[in-house]
């Protein structure tokens, strides 16, 4: 078996895919007031509710993706994919901007689309493994 086919590579890949969500969720949990302000800045009210929902989604989805198996892993990837789509449409509205702001938000939008692709790939692999 070549090194990239080793089981630990799949675990590392899922950890790396979930890392930003786990870090963000933990950071928001520790600094909940900042998480509330972030939600307000995005125009989401009640901000405390959306902050708590974001934390639960990021931590729950991330942990399910990294440590779950079967349907739990699929659910974690699906939750993070859905969250990423919604959050990207809310926070990176490049089509309403110009100049440097447009450039930055377009790049973030495209990067987030790549993350969604990664989550869909995890789901595809998990479904294929279940079908065997």
Q: What features would you describe in this structure?
A:
- This protein is mainly α and 132 residues long.
- The protein has one domain.
- 83% of the residues lie in helices and 0% in strands.
- The protein is built from 5 helices and no strands.
- The protein has helices at residues 7-30, 32-41, 47-67, 70-91, 99-131.
- Helix 1 packs across helix 2, helix 2 packs across helix 3 and helix 4 runs antiparallel to helix 5.
- The protein is globular, with a radius of gyration of 16 Å.
- The protein starts with 6 loop residues before the first helix and ends with a helix.
- The model has no long low-confidence stretch (mean pLDDT 96).
Concise description?
The protein is mainly alpha-helical. It has helices spanning 7-30, 32-41, 47-67, 70-91, 99-131.
How is this fold's topology laid out?
Layout: H1 7-30, H2 32-41, H3 47-67, H4 70-91, H5 99-131
Helix pairs in contact: 1-2, 1-3, 2-3, 3-4, 4-5
């Amino acid at each position: 078996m070549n090194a990239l086919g080793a089981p630990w590579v799949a675990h590392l890949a899922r950890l790396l895919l979930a890392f930003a969500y786990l870090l963000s969720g933990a950071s928001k949990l520790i600094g909940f007031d900042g998480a509330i302000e972030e939600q307000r800045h995005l125009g989401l009210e009640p901000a405390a509710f959306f902050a708590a929902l974001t934390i639960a989604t990021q931590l729950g989805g991330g942990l399910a993706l990294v440590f779950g198996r079967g349907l739990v892993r699929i659910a974690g990837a699906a939750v993070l994919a859905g969250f990423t789509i919604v959050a990207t449409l809310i926070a990176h509205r490049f089509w309403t901007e110009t100049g440097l702001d447009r450039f930055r938000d377009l790049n973030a939008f495209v990067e987030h689309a790549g993350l969604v692709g990664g989550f869909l790939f995890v789901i595809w692999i998990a479904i294929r493994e279940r079908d065997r």
